[in-house]
Prior knowledge:
Elements: E1 3-14, H1 17-46, E2 50-55, E3 58-63, H2 66-82, E4 92-104, E5 107-109, H3 111-122, E6 128-131, H4 132-138, E7 144-151, E8 160-166, E9 185-188, E10 194-200, E11 205-209, H5 226-233, E12 237-241, H6 258-271, E13 277-282, H7 285-295, E14 300-306, H8 319-335, H9 343-351, H10 357-370, H11 373-384, E15 399-404, H12 412-421, E16 425-430, H13 444-458
Parallel strand pairs: 4-6, 11-12, 11-13, 13-14, 14-15, 15-16
Antiparallel strand pairs: 1-3, 1-4, 2-3, 4-5, 6-8, 7-8, 9-10, 10-12
Helix pairs in contact: 1-2, 6-7, 8-11, 9-10
Amino acid sequence: MNGRRFAAILSIDVVGYSRMMQLDASGLLKSLNKIFRDILKPTVAEGGGRIVKLLGDGALVEFPATLSALSTAVGIQQKMSAFPWPREAIQLRVGVHAGDVLVEGNDLFGDPVNIAARLQAAAAPGGILISGMVRDLCGSQPYELKSQGVHRFKNISHPVETLSVVLEPEKDTGTSNVPVRGDLRFCKTSDGVTLAWECSGEGETIIKAPNWIGHLDLDWRSPGIAPMIRSVSRLGRLVRFDARGNGLSDWDVDQISFDRFVDDLECVFDAAGVERAPILAISQGGAVAAAFAARAPERVSAIVMLGSFPLGRAQRNNPQDQARAEALKSMMRAGWDDEYPSLRDHLAQIILPGASIEDRDLYAADMRQMISPENAGRYREVIDNIDVMYLLKEVTVPCLVLHSRGDRMQPFDQGRKFAAGLPNSKFVALDSDNHILPEYDTAWPQAEREISNFLKAHV
């Protein structure tokens, strides 16, 4: 029967389907059949739902009642968590939305289906992401919800409020666990500056170049940095350090310059006892990593770049960028310590426009502890005058360059320019407006997958 009707939609996806198919296709298909028979089919039936279609890596399910859809999603994930997996646990992502759908035979179409699929892609492994519409339609319900911000999804004309379901008992989803941190350590640069560094995870070493400003302790709760730290720390021993002039490193320093940033990266390589390793580089860390790879090619095996740029604002042939560079530098020195609304709040909005209000407020507050107003102005002077275009041809190591299409902090064309100038690069465009990616960004699963696969090949 064709036409329109109201429906609550569950979109379900198997996490890591392609990877598991390559490793053991027959074993995966056997497990998926068991999931369908023992978990999905009976749980959907109990909730009064209808399985619209099964895909190789997921399913689409319809419910006449929104609360039934939400309860079924929770039931599925709880049963998946308790399932006695013989080997690697299989995890699902679930997205839930509701509205008027188009009916053609047994199939469904329309925004509710598309939005449920976008929510599913943004959900954490083992998690459930719902829309504000679902929350409102359910009214009083027994589940704890956590705001994940308002997002614009690809091919969806309007922004969507998103919330994650807090599942009980809390389970290890593979993304929220915090890797073991090593002791805080210190090293001295050639000009006598003390740098703070630490490592997390075990295995082959990966070095992270500092980005913008940071703080070894506060980065663990940063909405855009913490997911990257946790993810990469599961691949090996991740060494991070605070650049001179900010974080837990010396603030009272004579020199803050691009060349000194490169020197400091080398200093931490030496202090950590690393002869050769891949570098994880975010924002201006990409230029620093490229300069170090050109200087010491024998010490760098590969570079991952996210939101990086070869030319700072003052070096671009764009009067607006040059004017913004001067304005930001002056505002940092004059208004860094202001209370809300401060320049820090403005920067948090630019860097993380897709994050929740709570996460942006936290990031803005933490930036105040990361650096002094004077050093923030000095940093902007250096960052805005970066120019590594001339040395890119000397960076011959494999480079993975990722950049968000809607990045307002460092424009998308800077990422493409970087990749085009590197002799051995792969460029990945991310459908996001964020400069750094929260874990609930719809582009995060793609970014994490690309980074993980790349680093596994070069660690």
